[in-house]
Amino acid sequence: MKLVYFAWVRERIGRPEESLDLPPEVATVGDLVGWLRARGEEYASAFETEGVVRAAVDRVHAKPDTPLAGAGEVAFFPPMTGG
């Protein structure tokens, strides 16, 4: 699966994107965040505060319980503000 990181999420992880084979137990966006957090210090830093980083699955905003089955891309980004 292709993972894409934006803004300070990208800076903390140290790369703009990567392709990973996810284990079968990673079934939702929330599962993916937990799995990534355990991959190393840079991921733990990016996802340290639960619920802050937003996700999109195949370019559609997603909640933690969104299934990943059949998805090609998950993007992670910080909250956005407008004005």
TrEMBL record:
It comes from the Bacteria. CDD domains: Ubl_MoaD. This is Molybdopterin synthase sulfur carrier subunit. InterPro entries: Beta-grasp_dom_sf, Mopterin_synth/thiamin_S_b, ThiS/MoaD-like. Transmembrane segments: none annotated. It comes from Methylobacterium crusticola.
